[in-house]
Structure formats: C-alpha cells, structure tokens
Amino acid sequence: MQPLMPPLADLLPFIAALLAAGVLAGLLAGLFGIGGGAILVPIFFHVFGLLGISDGVRMHLALGTSLAIIVPTSIRSFMAHRKKNAGAVDIDLLKGWIIAVPLGTMIAAVVAAWSSSTELRIIFAVISLLLALRMIFNRASWQLGDDLPKNPVKFLVGTGIGILSGLMGIGGGVMNNTFMTLYGRSIHQAVATSSGVGVLISLPGLIGYVWGGWGEPGLPPFSTGYINWMAVALLIPVTLLMAPYGARLAHALSKRQLEFGFALFLVGISIQFFLSVFA
C-alpha cells in the first residue's frame, strides 16, 4: 500500500515530469485548438512509464486522469460560450443527450476496467487513426442532411460519442463537431455545443474511472481509482498558462494546416501505440 505522504525526494521527479508534460500539452492544445485529451493521454502514458508506474495500470490512469482534467475546462468553456452567445449552444441537442452521452461514457469506463493496458492502447490507436484520416480527407462540402437526425439515431450517436470518448479520455469535441457539421450545422455552433458535450462526458467519466480503479494495486501516490490528483492539480494551471503561447503560433497557420498538423500528430501517436503493442 502506498504511504499517505511519500518523501519529498521521491515526489520531485514525479512533479517535474508532470510539469514538463503540462508545458507540452498546453502548447499543443493551444496550437491545435483541442481541449487536450487526445494530447494528454499519450503524454501521461509515457510520463507514467518513465516514472516506473506499472504497465498494467498506466494506460487506465492516463485515460482517467485526462477526463478529470477535462471536467473544469469543459465547464468553464461551456459557461463562456453561453455567456458570449446564448444561441451558439444547441441546448436541445444537449438535453436530448443528457442520458445518451453519460450512458456511453459509463459503458466505456466498464469496458476500460475489464480491459488490459494493451487492449486500451490498441483501441486508442485505432480511433486516433480513424479521426486522423477523417481530418486528412475531410471536405467542407461533405453533408449527410440539412438537420440533425431524430431519435433513435440521435440517441445512438450520443451514446457512441460517449463510448468512444470515454475509451480515449477525450471530451468528444472532434466527434461532435463532425456529427453536427455533417448535418448542416455551422462549425461555430458545433464547437460551442461540444463544450457542453465535454461536460456530459467528463463528469460521469471521472466517476466511472474512480470506480473502475478502486483498490487497484500499483497506482502512484495521490490516486483515487484511475485518477491521479497530483497530475490534475499540476496540469490544469500549467496547460491554461501555456495554451495562449501555442495559440499565438496557430495564428500564423491556416485552418487546413492546423487540421492537417493535428492529423499527423494523431497518426504519430497511433504508430507509437501500435509499436508498443506489436514491436
């Protein structure tokens, strides 16, 4: 069992590694305009590995901790969008997904609890690769309809977004943006609504990953289930501090360049995870 308060000398490498991860995640999140989950998970996975955390729990820990960090950032983002333009967020869609998305996220937490680290890495790599291909070959003219589909299709899509996002430790923005724009909604409304989707994913995701990892051996200090609170406390302020610097760099690039750059980042992460499993 881990001591309640490990010696400071043992904690310093852990703190330093997490701070460095926060700097990188903040810069990349600001550069690509992403909430951070797809960036934080692979960074956490490698940092936890360098710190000697058991391979059996570090992917689970990376996913759960990422979702915990998304909770305050998604709530803050949602409130900001509502304050700036109350009509920008599709409240009807969020109300329609108030069961569907959390249900999918809780299903993901159960799947993660019963999955091995290897299986979770494969899942993350496959979904990342599919998202990257969508970004690379995306065309603004692609559209499946003039308005969002009705239930049960809409409910199933919300559940699917919850499942995939929960298994990737992300807020679901990329998936919801794709869904809404394919059905005639503007990217601005899609982005604003995605902040609310992030709330519906991250809160039940946090609860699910705490439950899934409760009492699991091999977890680092200050962990509750698959959530490491030291990482949460350190990463939130550091990523918020560094994101504006990445955003400044983003202004020098076009939207297509940013989208293509993030797609290449996801491809690189997918390759790394596939190699870690099969090499």
UniProtKB/TrEMBL annotation:
Protein species of origin: Rhizobium soli
Intracellular or extracellular location(s): Cell membrane; Membrane
Report which superkingdom the organism of origin falls in.
Answer: Bacteria
Q: Which GO terms describe its cellular component?
A: plasma membrane
Q: How does it sit in the membrane?
A: Multi-pass membrane protein
Q: Which family does it belong to?
A: Belongs to the 4-toluene sulfonate uptake permease (TSUP) (TC 2.A.102) family.
Q: Locate the transmembrane regions by residue number.
A: 12-45, 57-75, 95-113, 120-137, 157-179, 191-214, 226-246, 258-278
**Name of the protein in question:** Probable membrane transporter protein
Q: Which Pfam families does this one have?
A: TauE
InterPro entries on file: TM_pro_TauE-like
Predominant cellular place of this UniProt entry's protein: membrane
